[in-house]
Structure formats: C-alpha cells, structure tokens
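Collaborator request, handled under Task 6.
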Amino acid sequence: MSLKRLIPAARGEAPADLLIRGCMLVNVLSGEIHPASIGVKDGVFLGIGDYEAAETLDAEGRFLCPGLVEGHIHIESTLLDPVRFARVAAGHGTAVTVCDPHELANVLGLDGIRWLLETTCKLPMEIRCMMPSCVPATHLETAGARISPQEIQAMLEDFSERMPGLAEMMNYPGVLFQDPQVLAKLVAAGTRPIDGHAPGLTGLDLNAYILAGPGSDHEAVHLAEAREKLRKGMHVMLREGSSEKNLVELLPLVNDFNSQNCSLVTDDRHCDDLLRQGHLDHAVRLAVSNGLSPLRAIQMASINTARYFRLHRRGAVAPGYRADFILLDDLDSFAISSVHLRGRHIDDQSWDAAPSGVTVTGSVHLGELSTDCLDIPARDGRVRVIRTVPGQIVTEADLVKPRVEGGLVCADPEADVAKLAVFERHHGTGGRGLGLVRGLGLRLGALAGTVAHDSHNLIAVGVSDADMMLAVRTLEACGGGFVCVEGGRVLELLPLPLAGLMSDREPEEVAAGLDRLNAAARSLGCPADINPFMQLSFLSLPVIPKLRLTDRGLVDVSSFDFVSLHE
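Structure tokens returned to the collaborator:
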C-alpha cells in the first residue's frame, strides 16, 4: 500500500481506479444502511464520496456489503483442493477464509500445511491458516504425523502474515489435566488468538479451559451451553455445516448487546452443499429467515470475525480497508448480483494455483490384513453400540444384545446395527479397531472412506464383511476416497487422491460424484435425511461425545479412554 498514491486520491486530488455509484451501503461499522458512492484505488477503499475515477460501476440502488469472512472451516471437508474451494466460495461472497488445516496436517504434517499455504498464496480470495494445535488430536488414535510445540512456534513466526494464531485446541482434557505438551502448545501461541473446542464443557472446568488461552468456541450445540461460554468471555461461533447444524438452535443467544462477540461459521461443508446452498451466504440467509436482522447477520459474517482474528482492515467498507465487496439485489434473501475482491470482479481475476514443491498424493498405506481381520468374538451379555444423531456430530451410546453367528458378533440390519471398522492407513501397521453402529440404516453392502476425523484413517461400515473388505481394498488401490459396495461389486467410487481427503477434479464433477454416492448409499438403506459419508467421517472423532471408534479401539469420550465393546 503506497500512502503517497492513496492519500491524494482519498482527498480527491488524483483519480480513483473505480467509483461505485448509487449503492445502499450496508455499514457494519455504524450499524446503518445508507446511500453512498465509494472510491477504490490500488485494491483498497478510498472512502465514501463522489470521486473522479477511471471506471464507474453503477450499482443502480443495489445493496453493497463487505466481503464475508469465514472464521472456522476445514477446507479439506469440502473435498475440493484449496484453489477450487476458493473460487467457489468467492462466488458466494467470501473474501477471507481463516481455515484450520489440521486434516491435512494429521495426514502429512508440516508439509501439508506448507502445501496449502504455497498453492493459495496468489489467489484473489485471501486464505489464512490457523496453526493446527492437535496433531495428533489425542493419544487415542494413530495419525500420520506429530507436530511439536517448537514446530508450532516456528511456523507461527515464519508465516506470521498468514497465520493469525493457534487452531482449535481439541484436547481439552489435556488442558484440564495440565499435560506438559498441550500447555507448551498454548504458550507457543504467545498473544495470538487461540481457537477453542470444548463440546459440553461447563462450570469450573470451562473456567480453567478459558483461563489457559482458548478464546472462541464453535462446538456449542445447546443454547445454555453457548450462553455460558459467552458469559465467560468466549467468542461464540454459530456453526452451520453439512452435518453440524447448530445455527437455529443458538440464534436466540444473539441480542443488541452481545452480537459483536458472535460469528457465523461453517466448519465442515461438503462440496455439493457449497455449490447448491452456498457458503457463509447460506448461513446469513438462514439466520435472517429465522428472525435475525440482515445487518446483524452480515456483521456476524464479516467485521465481527475479522476483529476476533485481528485481521487488519478486513470485513468492512471504510477508508484503507481492502476493497472486497458484494452487490446484492435483495438484502433479506442475500441475493448476490456480483462479487468484487480487491476492487475487481472475481471473473476478471486469475484463480490459478501457485507452484508447490510438496507432494500430497500416495497417502494410503494399510499393510497386511488377514482374512479374519473383521471378526469380533462373541461373549455373554450386551455390547456397546455407537448411535448417530441426525443433523449432529455428537453420538449416543447404546447397550444391545448382539446378533451372533458361529461364535462371532455380526451385523444386524433388522435392528439397524452395522459393523464398523477403522484401519490405520498412514504407516502400514495393519492396526484396526472394530465396533458397531446404528443410525445409518444400512440393510445391504458397505460404505467406506479415508475421510475420518481427525487422524483420517480408513473407516468402513457394513452389514457384509466381504463387501467391507472390497471397499477397503478399493480405496487402498485408488489412493483414498469414498466408496459404496454391494454384492461383491463397487456401485460408486469417488477418488480423493490429495492426502486421501480432496479431489483434483472440478467442483461440479465432485458434486455429481457425491450425488451418485449418496444415491447408492440410500439404495442400501441409508435414510434420505442424513449425509451418510459425512456422518461416517465423524464416527472416529474421539474429542466429541459420547462413543467413538478409532484404529486403536472403542473410545468413551466422557472418560477420554478406551472401553470394551462388550459390557
């Protein structure tokens, strides 16, 4: 930014590059909507006024609001590579994305983070990365890498311009019990923002967790939980993803006095939802349709987030702010007419990936697996079963009498109980965890994927052991992805060769592939009101209550320890 060029232009002594004339400015700073004309030069706003300019854009009375700022998303969960994600998200009005690349990091370590930073460094949409704090997320699973407190500090210093702070501290038990490595990671962040991740944490334990450094939380599911976190000083992120749909439940929290301490985020959003429903614009529309004023919703998706992450001159329309703006045909429905980043229409800019020296393919290594690797010996009594909750990533724990054949515990489709397996896929150890799950509705076949939070081992579910093993071997052969199998044949396969997490194809191809996968899953019994592969991907996440399965075994999240499948 050259002040010698910009100050004369802001005073009207030199021409602007662009004048946006005749708009209704959604002013997130003053809390007003008012008529304005706005000057832009060198990619920043000069200010409000009638400037002489090389180019004039007649807004024709449209609403102009700042580009949106995403405060918490895992780009990997879109299944798109970061550059294609940015292009799609920008079309929905997103100007800045603060992501947490801990999915990549849990597979590829620091190389994965560097690859994301390198490939996105020249994009019109700004991508900033919080430094992953939990690689691995816990001691209860096997990740592809391990990142130390010293490496965290070095990355934060080396990439200070693009790394606002420390990403979600999921290991809240490690914080509470003062694990030296966990505390060292918090200290490594210095005075930078630290994102929290504290599902269900309350009372004195929540006090201790906040005191240790985490300043935000996106995991609140219930209103009382979010209110306690807000009262205790956390920046509450109201989440609306593909599987985690919490916005409507939490919206009554927001009022005239506290909204500046709240943001809208998406966390995990699949490509098909991103293309068809939108990104943060979908969250804005949903909030407005449920009673929040459009101005407040836009504040929660722009300036509030920018301020929490200390993003200098982002998220508003004012002198010196980066000239990211959206023109809306209608405010209530957030109907986007056009998006401009750094003062230029997004269609007039380059969306090419920058070169990177990091390779992110070839990440699936299963090792030797025996023919009986899915066998679960039966015992007397009941077994623990993971029960999914539609629309949420939390699970419940059921105790049921298992179906037994030949001395082995089997899937029981009549009772909606399927077999679940998680295979270690980073180091070729052949390790696996076995369990049972209900709520996916499978009556035939098997599903599998290499997207399995947070360590992203290979997860498979099915009512046929043979179909489960075919699914596993198919993903091993293609380097990762999602697959649907029935009767000894592959019904649908979506390869995800980039770290076993992302596609190298165009968004429309990925969305169409997801459509076919979901249709195939529904043909096997999965209900239409769930996203089966997104739901499957969270069954191995041992930091969200209550019961999970990792490659090392069944985890009771409340005790943060392994439990037996048998009661």
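The cover message to the collaborator said: "The mean pLDDT is 96. DSSP finds 17 helices and 29 strands in the chain. Please let us know whether this matches your experimental observations."
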